[in-house]
Design goal:
The chain has 1400 residues and is mostly helical. The protein contains 63 helices and 4 strands. Residues 1334-1400 are annotated as: Disordered.
Amino acid sequence: MTAGVKSAGRSSTLRALQVTTKDLIVGEINNVMAAMRLNSRWSSRSRQLRPGAESPLLKGFRTLREQLETVQDIAQEDALFYLQPFLSVIRSQETSGPITGVALHSVSRFVEGLLSVDQPNAKSCIEGISEAATHCRFEATEPGSDEVVLMKILQVLGSCFKSPVGLLLSEEQIMEMIQTCFRMSSQPRLSELLRRTAERTLIEIYEIVFERLSHHHDETNRGSYSLKCLETMIHFACNNINPPITVNGETDRMESAICLLGLTMAGTIVETSVKKIIEYPSLAKLFQFQLTRKLLQCCHCDDLIVITTGLRISLHMFINMMEHLKPQIEMFFTSILLLIEKRQELTYEKHEAILETLLDFCRHPTFLTLLYLNFDCDFRCNNLLEGICVFLQKSAAPVNGELTTIHMLAVECLAAIATNTFNRLQLDNSENDISPFQPKLRLIGQMKRMKGMIQNGVEKFNAKDQTAIAYLQQCGILPAETDSQEFYQKYALFIRYAYGINKGKIGEFIGSRKDLNKKVLSEYVQTLDVSSHEIHTCLRAFFESFRITGESANIELVLTPFTDHFFEAVGLPFLNADAVYTLAYGIILLNSDAHNRQVRVKMTENQFIYNLRGANNRSDYPPDMLKVIYKHIRENEFKIPEEYLNNVSEATWEQLPNKYSPEAYRVFGSQFTLPPSFFPLSNQLEASLYDFSSFSVLYSPFVNAISSVFKGTNDDMVLDELVKYLNMIVHIAASYNLTEAVDSIVVGHLLSFSNNDRQITLLKYATQIATAVTPTNETSPTTLFGQNKKALLAMKVAFSVTKKYASWVREAWKTVIPFILLLNKLSLLPTFLEKYELNDPSNSAKAPKKETKSGASLWNIGSSWFGLSPTTPSKTDEVDTTEDTTYDIMEKDPQAEKNAQEAVKGIDIPEILTISSTIHSDSLKALILAVLANCGKADMFKNTPSKEERKNALFSMDLLTSIALANSQRITEIWTPISDHLSSVIETSSKMNEYTEKSIVNLLIIAIRLSQSNTLDVTVIMTLQSLIKMNTNLADVAAKKVTYGISQLVETSPDMIKTSIGWATLSAFLDFSSSFSTSESGGFKILANLLTKSNLITKSSFSNWITLIIFFTKPRCSASTANSAMELLWSLFRFIPELLQLKPDTPNTEETQEAWDGYWYPILHQLSVLCQDHRSEVRSHAINFLQRSLHYNHLQKLPPSVCYQCFQQTPEKQEVGNNNATHSMEEIRTRGFNLLKSVYLQYLLQVTQLPNFRDLWLQILEFMEAFGRPDNSEHLVEGVREGCKIILLIMSNSGLFSGKSDASEQSKRIWEDTWERMDRFYPSLKQEWISVTPEDFPQNPSTAQPQEPAQPQAQRSTPAQPTPAPQSAQQSTQPTQSTQAHPVMELASRPKSPSSATDV
């Protein structure tokens, strides 16, 4: 039941449709017949009833109406059944315009509503309609009515293509319909409305045809037109794109209209089916070799609409077909850039149109990246991206100082490129795998590097540089072996394919008759593609690759290898190589004849053929071939494409792909991976991999363009846009670590700004003011600065970039720092630097601080830092202390100056110190170098410096110090240049000046602050040593403050002396301080404070401490300081047991020996030396400390070997026996002998245990003899004699001194030696001794003869020295590691000369 209902429904619908169709046809029949009856011709005929009187046209309609009554299903009938009467009316020349118009309208309705592809004979129907419409004839009445008919024709043509039946139209019919529309659109006599309607119909036809192509994937499908039809339509559109020629400044309007219509047709094709056309090589070839050439020619015409339309079509075509249009794209952009450079040929509107199109190119996400990959990295191509960026930079620069939309468009283009890069930076690619792109990435990088080498070689080749070959060999492009086949092949490839080689230079090279050049020429012709077998095509490719000059001999030289190569590859129809040569030469002559304006009578085709008769080895060339050659040459002149970019022939255009032959890469050798003909991009991720390289090309032109527009505009909105662009590009540059880009932004916007109509450079102001040449009637520079909002904005931007991206700033610091100095000079800079001073607190109460007048010499300030009174400077140190009144006589605007101050305050320059501690080390080093470049020099005060120089130098030094302290954790990275500068200033300054003074103070401050933060490095300590290398005059002035600074340093970082460098530095400074009276006490205070820290005194440093103390005992120091130093020696002496952990009860012989040699003896020796000092107070203190030391409890139990060493060395008797000593020295000798006596008796028990005790006793006897002679003072002689008695009595009681028979052998020998010496200076002692102890003498005292009194020393010769007894085996085993004499003995043996002695 359901099926039956559905069937009944379809039947009723069909019946309703049939009724509607009949009514429609009948209605249209009535309309046409009614129109015909209104015409007098048809109305008279309709009244006549005689046979044959009725018009065939009317009869046809009546017949049709009758037949319709019998038709059951019109859809099954042939459409011509009801269309024929209407088509007859349309074809008839008898019908008037209104009648034809009604018939056309009826046919249009039938096509739109009735015709179907499935109808019988549908193809014939649509062809009949097409033929009738395109060949429509009617009687002309009035123009208005006639144009209505023409409008109806266009309506029918459009309906044919809109209907599905239109797919059945043949190629000829389609082209005839297109031609009909085109003729209507190009008829000047027709109204504008009709022409525009015809154009609109024509464009609709193209839209319908190519839209159907884009929706079907098979050209054989019924839904699409034939491939041949599409080719014809494209060819038709291209043939009508002929740029109008301007004559006397006027362009033919119709030519422009036709060209514009052709462009519109081509644009329709591109917009509707460009991506589909790529799939059809024959269609793509038309785009490559026809459309692109026509579009390029349009860009060079003078019609703005034609230019704009051509550029728009080029945009769509290049973006969508880039992979297939590489040669054309290069030619297009190269031509456009060349056109822009010739500004005399470019109108403002044309320039603007080109920039607008470029803006669309730049906005494409990946187009410019593709340009970089496929052109800038290909050595066969021009650097398109670089060229576009440079072109945009030039376009952004105002020519006459006036800013226009062109300049902003150029900046927007560059900004669009940067925006694409910026947007890709925002993508999160952390999880994306880029490994699939790595091989391609490496290949691109390798190609770019090779292109750089190739381009350098090209420059050398063009300049005829003799080193060109050597350079290419060094780069590996040419083999090292010059005379080889490989060398000639690669050299030929180089000059054939490398971009930029001058064509004339190539002609000169291959036209040379040198052996090398001939061999390269032979390989050069081998690079030509002769696969086309067309001699004129191959000859064109050959002669358009270079420019040959000279006579026919030169042409013959290069033509012979070409003909040989062509004949070898082609052969027939040529019978030998000479036949090829003759024809080739004839073609060259034909080219000259056809295109030389001086030749008025041109060669005809028959003449050309006749001239070549019998030249093919006595035979004729094929006539058809010669005709083709003649036509080709006449229509296409031989031209070098790069020299005729706006008028390249079609034949030359077709040769462009030869330039991109893969053979070119054979120049790099077989190991090089052959790149594809085109590098596509798969996605944004892959594009981002090349953004760094492309941005490296972009940033410099972009920054320069922004700077140009920035200087030329005062519009706030434009300025805001420029600032936004700057922030974007600096962000990109920082992301890619491109420090040059950041530098260029800072430099470009800080150096200069625009003020009214003149260029104002801030550094220029600084120079004018510093040299006092600014006219007094000019406005203050501070006022000018504050009045210029753009200048303030430039400063704000520059410092914002500097602070935000400081880690990427390098060379720009050299601009930032002078700018800061300039602001400081203009008194715009807030006080933010610490005034580094070294004031001794002990002097603060003594010298009240005095206020320093503004503008006064900083020497007074510096002197107060040192706690010194300023001295009168020498001529070389004089400075100008007058007030700078330059600003006072200038006009000032308080509000403007307030604006400047607030602007400077807003940029927060002090923050630079804060961020310096976090920036990259390379940036920090660059900052340090920039500051040092503005610091003073050691000799800057030899000539009187200007106020600006002094102010800048002192400010820079404080800034340098602040930066160094802010980066205390990285001081080692930046200290070398700072150290070099400070050392140079301090060491080379001959006299004190304010900058040298500041250098000294700031160096000490840096060291002190670093020690406080535990970051004091050994390199800083080494720099401090420059302070002791100062000139003597300079050191005398600075010694006190230097010593105070060192004291603070040592106080904060005492552990620094634990290093070798630290100790050497401290030792040098203490020696330095002890050399000047002003610093002596300060230096000693440092030493005393250090010795209070027992942890600093170690075994290894003990001797060094003694050396430091000795510095302050030297004669240059005061007696009080020397006495204090001896107290330190005594303190060290007492510290030895604790240091060595000695036990006085049970001394160890080895430990005691070590303590004596390395610790006790050096101190005792120094005390003994001081006992002979020329200062009586020092001598007295020295003896006291020596006595205290020798009686120190730890020395009471010295081992015998150590005790013996105290008396080992005997002083020289000539010194000891000097009789010219003064009274003071006699007193010292008395005290010295008493000390010797007490020490001897103290250690008597120990030394008697030694086997060589007798030798020691003989030495003591010698001392007693020297001091006990009568020629000495009575007090000294009496003291010596009394001392002898005491010693002998104690030795006698000990059994060491006895003459008894039972006494020991040693005692007897000592007895004999003693009395032998006593007889010389104290003979009466023997009688006294006999009277006291006669039993000690072996003979009877009563019979003993008294000895003869001893003669005075001066009256007799000195007896011979007793020969020492030979040492026993035991003696030989005694320790001998120390042979030093006891200090007491040295004291007794070294009396000072009278000239150096002083009273006690």
